[in-house]
Amino acid sequence: MGFPASDRTRTTKLLSVFQTQDGAQRSRIEGVTLLRATRSTEPVPVLYEPCVVIVAQGSKRFHLPDRVLTYDARNYFLLTVPVPAECETIAGRTGPFLGFAVRIDLAILSDVLMTLGPTTHAARRGRAELRVTSPLMSSSLSNVALRLVESLGSQQDSQVLGAQLVRELLYRVLSSEDGSILQDLMFVNEGRTRIHRILHRIHDTYALPLDVSTLAHEAGMSSSGLHFQFKAVTGSSPVQYQKTLRLHKARMLMVQESIGASIAAHRVGYESPSQFSREFKRLFGAPPVDEAQRVKAVFGYTDEVSASV
């Protein structure tokens, strides 16, 4: 299993041409981000958006509290719920880390599932409690991954084929053994549906004060019930999740817009710059300005991206 040698070689060559600078850069296809890292990195805090990551060269390690997931040319990465974690990048033995991420588009996912029919989900229950995994690459998935990268070489191909190839890639993931966790985004029980709604609300209003009791009341849950189910899905409490989200958003603002720490702190909802600096250093291990400079130097951001995958 994994990338066939010929497909992997071709994908690696194309990615090295299309993505010449370290970092994450939006491609010609909506929702597809190209990834490159010349040097290996230590584990750093991340907060990924739901995505599928395909690696052609090198590898990444995703550190969760209870396990470490490795994804490379043999294993792709699948995340269905934004979760705070740490991630390290390992450059390839013969060249840089190269890969791409595909954002999970719920509209496309819903359309594919409607086409497949209701029996597919029911037959694949059992691993739906997982929110992140690194399954083995199949030959069908590596094939569509190569064709997607090939389409980036032509503006016309990207426009005509891009959305279709993203749809096919999500279909291949849905059809895999671990596809149930992707299907679970659309077929969730009532309790998890409420948690997903709360997650969307936190992401949409992260700069506003968070009142857990009000969230629980609106969701028809007790505060303790909300806390329990939220932690089961995200591995974090609602308050800690919002704090982590704010700090990641602030770091992104400082890197991409070159603004100061106090301005970033205010924009993500902090009233006290000193509290922001303390909590920022506790999460990232460095003061805001130093961390922003480090990210710029190491990852070389050249375009605004939704997440540091």
| Largest sheet, strands/sense/barrel | 6 strands, antiparallel
| Strand runs, count | 10
* Count of alpha/pi helices: 13
What's the end-to-end separation, in Å? Answer: 24 Å
Q: Any idea of the CATH topology of the largest domain?
A: Jelly Rolls
What is the H-and-E element order?
A: HEEEEEEEEEHHEHHHHHHHHHH
Kindly estimate the percentage of residues that lie in beta strands according to DSSP. 15-25%
CATH architecture name of the largest domain: Sandwich
- Mean pLDDT across the residues is 86
Low-confidence runs (pLDDT<50, min 5 residues)?
121-129, 302-309
How do the strands of the widest beta sheet line up side by side? 1-2-9-4-7-10
CATH domain class of the largest domain: Mainly Beta
Integer-rounded radius of gyration:
19 Å
> How much helix, percentage-wise, in residues?
40-55%
Number of domains in the coordinates?
A: 2
Query: Which assembly state applies to the chains in this document?
Result: single chain
- Overall morphology: globular
Q: What structural class do you assign from the helix and strand content?
A: alpha+beta
Offer a few descriptive terms.
309 residues; alpha+beta; Jelly Rolls; Arc Repressor Mutant, subunit A; six-stranded antiparallel β-sheet; four-stranded antiparallel β-sheet; 10 strands; disordered C terminus
Question: How would you describe the overall organization of this protein?
Answer:
By secondary structure, the chain is α+β, with helices and mostly antiparallel strands. The chain folds into two domains: about 180 residues, Jelly Rolls (Sandwich); about 120 residues, Homeodomain-like (Arc Repressor Mutant, subunit A, Orthogonal Bundle). It contains 13 helices and ten strands. The strands form two sheets. A six-stranded antiparallel sheet has the order 1-2-9-4-7-10. A four-stranded antiparallel sheet has the order 3-8-5-6. β5 and β6 form a beta hairpin. The radius of gyration is 19 Å and the shape is globular. About 40% of the residues are buried.
